[in-house]
Design a protein that fits this description.
Two copies of one chain form a homodimer. Chain A is an alpha+beta fold. Chain A contains 15 helices and 17 strands. In chain A, helix 1 runs antiparallel to helix 4. Chain A is elongated. The model of chain A has no long low-confidence stretch (mean pLDDT about 95). The interface between A and B is large, with 114 and 114 residues. Strand 3 of chain A pairs antiparallel with strand 3 of chain B.
Chain lengths: ~425, ~425
């Protein structure tokens, strides 16, 4: 007998859970489209060289090979995010795309991480990005922030907060503190770990590993603990007394991006000066979505501005800004914490019961009429006692149960427990009125 | 510069093509749900032992391994169909499912085939199966046939024919011709290749490889050339004069399955005695969907009844019947042959133009009103001349273009070329009436 066991890190839902996942997927997709984003999908597979060259954690890449050629070294690998594939896609198809290119892409990605709570090796990411050719207005950053916040507000299994920072602001502040180019980038990577290693850890790494002066390191840590409402951005940054051209630019850009948001979005945003996001390619706004009721969960989504993502594939410059909704992790949390009611495992609205096989063809015709009016209808498979068939409907959350009665039909509404004569047309009308 | 090249066998569409694919995917999904099927999704990855043990072509399996561990032998592999994962899923979750279990599953699968026209290494399959515990009524076979035919009739890029045969009928006829158990199964596999190797090829393999008598082999080939309308099933089989219990059962079962179909479906069905489908596990009806206008295309979908699919994973018996719509191949053909109009690469209904950044926040508020009423709306990113912004709308198929005009708004309908004053509410009403 072949082994049947869950594979750690590869989530698999029951049908009733998958119903929830499909619904949420569709909500997000529909929201992305409402802002005019168009879909792309890229193969699960990229050239291994495409993925490795992007300086990610190579250890997490799943290489693939034909089974019988295993051991020969792989040419292909599974994508670990949707950003590198987007960059490759834009470089490859640029002549067939029109810019700014606003795309959504909602696919599974794979990472060979050590599995742990809330971490998966296979999971859905729902990405939106806006990519310009040579230039991309700041309004695009505003749009990404609006879409990402609205996506979480739409699904809304638990409240969320959008943490925001700006790479130019960080760079400017660190420069005003006397850090040179190289040290600034290194410092950003260290500060990014503050939730993991704590203030002391950051302090230690800044001073010992990067050789930053103790007093400057202390100011950097103090900066990283700042968190304030978006309305206070200008005054709080001014109060630091750290003047630099990049500080001015960062504050101005953030101000403009925030001015484009709805009141509701602005209230969910907070400036978080500890937010650094380690990824090299961010150059402007950086965004992370957090769930206050689950502080240990980490980020449920995020994104930011990158000046030249496609650089590795093309000599042309393609600046972009994007965001990602971590669908599988968010849904996984919702199931685990009971944040979402899981429906019954059924989608039909009507069950047509069958008492004898001879009558089935007639009942099938009735069901076809309902389906062609958009009413999801099952015809019972088999002919057990009626009680069993009604039980089947109840277990699956089917509300209307149809019986043949003489030459006509009757329908029982399992919600109101009433039973009345009906016809296909009458039932279609009843269900239309009830929904 | 990293290499940017298409990977042979891994299709990648432009956004306007992906719009078509998403629409068709949604049509199929919606149809499957209308019959009461519930969704599942399984990981892309199964244990390698799960996939290899199922006696498929091992050479086509893609094994995966973490990049840095490549060469160590793989534990996992990408699924090559959705049937083996279904079997594993049912065995694993049987205690949490209710039977008959009617599920749809629409995912990508991977096969390391040599790429050639119309063949892909990564492609979507859209599967439906009904799985019973211990038993499954014949009505389930009728339902699968109805769903699969209706799916093709719904998408309908080109006419289709549903070719039908029955394993019991084949077994019975071959037994009546004197073939023993083992030879019958071998003969079915040979006949399955008739479109590839021709009548002579089949004759040769039957006589030389299987040692079937020349005269019997000739009758088998003659049988395999029979093709007739479903109404003639009984009389045409009777006319063969080959009596066997399995012939009687096969004809009765096919008759019952066909009696449950709509007139439209029955007209698209044909009995094809050459149809054998090599897969070992089929035991009853076998189905293949063909596209008469593209005779070399092969099958666009197919399926059948299997008495004990889950056998490799469980001691319980789980009979099933299922079908599959080969979405990627079908779409690929449609693109290649121009069977479907490819839309413009846009999804927004409205473009709000922007002439100065100072006005953007106000225009964003207008756009939010439209979106919250379900109207997909873009706000132009940047502030070039109006002509450029209108061109943008035209290129993406956006019909309504909004301009700020004094304290109010005007809208231009690019279809009728008329321009009138408007408000968010008025525009929502106009668009609602136009669609």
């Amino acid at each position: 007998m072949a082994k049947v066991a869950p594979i750690s890190g590869f989530p698999e839902w029951l049908p009733e859970q998958r119903l929830v996942e499909e619904r949420v997927y569709e909500q997000i997709r529909s929201l992305y489209r409402s802002f005019g984003f168009v879909p792309i999908e890229t193969p699960a597979v990229e050239l291994l060289s495409t993925l490795v060259s992007k300086g990610s954690d190579d250890r997490e890449i799943y290489a693939i090979n034909r089974h019988q050629a295993i051991g020969e070294g792989a040419e292909f690998a599974l994508h670990f995010d949707l950003t590198v594939p987007l960059a490759r896609y834009v470089a490859q198809h640029a002549h067939q795309l029109s810019f700014p290119f606003k795309r959504y892409q909602m696919q599974k990605v794979w990472r060979g991480e050590r599995p742990q709570r809330g971490r998966y090796r296979e999971f859905y990411q729902c990405d939106i990005d806006i990519v310009g050719r040579e230039e991309l207005p700041l309004a695009a950053d505003g749009e990404i922030l609006a879409v990402l916040d609205t996506a979480f507000a739409t699904v809304n299994f638990t409240p969320h907060v959008v943490r925001i920072n700006h790479r130019k602001l960080l760079q400017g502040l660190y420069r005003a503190l006397g850090l040179n180019d190289e040290r600034r980038s290194a410092a950003i990577r260290v500060v990014d770990k503050i939730r993991k290693i704590g203030n002391d850890g950051v302090l230690r790494e800044l001073t010992s590993a990067l050789g930053v002066e103790e007093s400057v390191a202390q100011r950097i840590v103090a900066l990283a603990t700042l968190e304030f409402p978006v309305e206070e951005l200008r005054e709080r940054v001014m109060a630091l007394g750290l003047e630099d051209e990049l500080v001015t630019t960062g504050v101005a850009e953030l101000g403009q991006i925030l001015s484009l948001q709805s009141e509701a979005t602005r209230k969910r945003c907070v400036i978080d000066m500890s937010l650094a996001r380690g990824l090299e390619y961010y150059t402007g706004i950086i965004i992370e979505v957090h769930l206050p009721q689950f502080p240990d969960f980490g980020s449920a989504g995020g994104g930011g501005r990158y000046e030249n993502l496609v650089g590795q594939f093309s000599n042309q410059k393609f600046p972009g800004v994007g965001g990602s909704f971590g669908l599988t992790r968010y849904i996984g949390l919702a199931f685990e914490e009971g944040l979402v009611p899981v429906p019954k495992p059924g989608v039909a609205q009507v069950l047509v019961t069958v008492l004898a096989e001879e009558g089935r063809a007639h009942l099938e015709a009735f069901a076809r009429e309902l389906r062609s009016a958009g009413v999801a209808t099952e015809v019972f498979l088999g002919t057990p006692k009626l009680g069993k068939q009604i039980e089947y409907a109840e277990r699956r959350g089917v509300r209307w149960v149809v019986f043949q009665s003489g030459n006509g039909f009757e329908v029982k509404d399992l919600a109101s427990k009433t039973q009345v004569p009906t016809s296909a047309a009458a039932l279609i009308a009843t269900i239309g009125a009830a929904s």
